[in-house]
């Protein structure tokens, strides 16, 4: 176990310091501790995120299994067996509905949908139970990064020296800034409203996305509760003005509007959670690692919640980094720099592909331009009608072939065995 930190000005040492205790940081601490590294996780426990759930696909499910979190997550989650996409843009040429089913790629489910807060709760319990991890619930004020070593200075003056720093401190990462890694940021004229709903008719473990001119309106299945057999979470992208207007509405009127958007397919809607609102933006970084530091999660990629990619990508960052650093002597600069060059190459490809894919789909919806509509429509028709292409799209979505780290390779159940 890592030495305990003494207060104020005192210094401790660790192998790996993970900055930020969001979902990505918690998963990173568990992954590195699992590989035997003395791990220190520094960050305050995240506050609840209203109405937010995460859909985690097969690769992430396997990773959660490897971390020993899957059974507990599954008990709180709903399986997502299919994703149905419906073009609701009223474009000139009708586009067929597209359904991507797990059974087409011989999986029981594409993934699971779980409340963000419950996922954090499960990971946090595991972190607290793991003797190789020291959790320090504090902010990091500054970093010292040089070739020979790395250190984090906590807000209360404590100093922690580490062989390596995993920065999971979110989109405004202090670690990234101190390392001097450049970012490119942009915004979309959209807000996502998030909430949990109960409804009249079953979702059949299927996620349904209506692609509208203001962005996707996506219902993702949630598990039944004693008093509510049919539940879903909603991620609804819209203009800033519409978000303001909808949030000011009496709750009942908003529920009617949601039912209307869902074409009454799920019957009457009842909002059962607080409503979250998140401004949409994008961010990419010039490099994913530098010196003795690597970026994971929203420190190195941000994009709108379309196709449920964000945390899935973050968990791939973590699993990939763990893979690249496996059997590397962290004190050997040449070995470390070779491993990080590999990590950077992988992340450029994987993150670039997802960020650009989400950007193109989002802009193609909100900018009504006939050639773009035709291209989007033709792509949907191709995927809907060509079985091999559709199966390739499903596989790439849930189990990406480009980068599939060790901890994501073994089907759930086999992971902890070997
Ligand atoms: C509406 C919406 C729906 C989404 N749905 C999905 C989905 O279905 N599937 C999916 O895969 N992804 C989804 N995402 C994306 C996913 O939620 C995010 O990618 C994920 O939450 C990011 O986690 P993170 O740990 O990287 O960042 P964060 O959650 O931002 O965590 C960063 C942590 O670092 C801490 N921190 C910051 N500064 C410091 C410091 N100086 N010292 C110490 N700690 C610090 C913060 O307190 C925070 O706890 C969605 C996103 C949105 C907005």
Question: What is the gist of this entry?
Answer:
This protein has 418 residues and is of the alpha+beta class. Helix content is 35%, strand content 29%. It has one domain (11-185, 280-417): 3-Layer(bba) Sandwich (FAD/NAD(P)-binding domain), CATH 3.50.50.60.
Could you list some keywords that capture this structure?
418 residues; FAD/NAD(P)-binding domain; 8-stranded mixed sheet; 35% helix; 29% strand; disordered N terminus; binds flavin-adenine dinucleotide
Major sheet description: 9 strands, mixed
Give the oligomeric state.
single chain
Instruction: Give the CATH topology.
Output: FAD/NAD(P)-binding domain
**What percent of residues are in strands?**
25-35%
Number of domains: 1
Termini, distance in Å? 23 Å
Going by helix content, strand content and strand pairing, the class is alpha+beta
CATH architecture: 3-Layer(bba) Sandwich
Gyration radius, rounded: 22 Å
Query: Mean of residue pLDDT?
Result: 93
**Strand runs, count:** 20
Class in CATH?
Answer: Alpha Beta
Task: Tell me about this structure.
The protein has 418 residues and is of the alpha+beta class. It has one domain (11-185, 280-417): FAD/NAD(P)-binding domain (3-Layer(bba) Sandwich), CATH 3.50.50. The protein is 35% helix and 29% strand. The chain contains eleven helices and 20 strands. The protein has helices at 23-34, 58-66, 70-76, 116-129, 174-179, 240-248, 251-261, 310-325, 333-366, 370-385, 387-398, and strands spanning 11-19, 39-42, 53-57, 78-80, 82-87, 98-101, 111-115, 133-136, 140-146, 149-154, 159-167, 183-199, 206-212, 215-222, 231-238, 269-271, 276-285, 289-290, 293-295, 301-302. Strands 5, 6, 12, 13, 14, 15, 16, 17 and 20 form a nine-stranded mixed beta sheet that branches. α1 packs parallel to α8 (310-325) and α8 packs antiparallel against α9 (333-366). The chain starts with 10 loop residues before the first strand and ends in a 20-residue tail after the last helix. The model is unreliable at 1-6 (pLDDT under 50). Bound molecules: flavin-adenine dinucleotide (FAD). Flavin-adenine dinucleotide binds next to α1, β3, β12 and α8.
């Amino acid at each position: 176990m890592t030495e305990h930190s003494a207060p104020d000005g005192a210094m401790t040492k660790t192998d790996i310091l993970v900055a930020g205790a969001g979902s990505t940081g918690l998963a990173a601490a568990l992954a590195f501790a699992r590989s035997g590294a003395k791990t220190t996780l520094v960050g305050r426990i995240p506050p609840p995120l209203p109405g937010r759930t995460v859909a985690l696909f097969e690769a992430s499910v396997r990773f959660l299994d490897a971390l020993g979190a899957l059974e507990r997550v599954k008990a709180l989650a709903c399986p997502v067996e299919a994703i149905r996409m419906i073009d609701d843009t009223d474009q000139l040429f009708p586009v067929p509905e597209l359904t991507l089913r797990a059974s087409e790629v011989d999986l029981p489910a594409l993934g699971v949908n779980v409340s963000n807060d419950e996922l954090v709760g499960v990971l946090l319990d595991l972190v607290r139970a793991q003797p190789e991890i020291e959790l320090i619930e504090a902010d990091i004020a500054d970093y010292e990064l040089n070739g020979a070593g790395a250190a984090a200075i906590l807000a209360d003056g404590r100093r922690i020296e580490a062989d390596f720093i995993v920065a999971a401190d979110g989109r405004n990462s202090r670690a990234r800034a101190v390392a001097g890694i450049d970012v490119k940021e942009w915004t979309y004229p959209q807000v996502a409203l998030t909430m949990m709903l109960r409804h009249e008719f079953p979702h059949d473990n299927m996620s349904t996305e209506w692609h509208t001119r203001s962005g996707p309106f996506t219902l993702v299945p949630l598990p039944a509760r004693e008093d509510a057999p049919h539940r879903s979470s909603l991620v609804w992208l819209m203009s800033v003005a519409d978000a303001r207007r909808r949030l000011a509405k009496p709750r009942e009127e908003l529920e009617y509007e949601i039912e209307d958007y869902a074409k009454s397919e799920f019957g009457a809607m009842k909002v059962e959670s607080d409503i979250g609102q998140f401004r949409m933006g994008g961010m990419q970084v010039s490099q994913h690692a530098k010196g003795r530091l690597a970026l994971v999660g929203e420190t190195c990629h941000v994009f709108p919640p379309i196709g449920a990619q964000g945390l899935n990508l973050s968990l791939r960052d973590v699993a990939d980094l763990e893979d690249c650093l496996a059997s590397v002597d962290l004190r050997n600069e040449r070995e470390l720099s070779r491993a990080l060059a590999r990590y950077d190459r992988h992340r450029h490809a994987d993150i670039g592909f997802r960020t650009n894919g989400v950007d193109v789909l989002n802009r193609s919806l909100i900018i009504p331009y006939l050639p773009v509509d035709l291209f989007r429509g033709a792509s949907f028709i191709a995927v809907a009608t060509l079985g091999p292409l559709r199966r390739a799209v499903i596989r790439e979505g849930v189990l990406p072939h480009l980068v599939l780290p060790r901890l994501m390779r073994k089907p759930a159940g086999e992971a902890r065995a070997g």
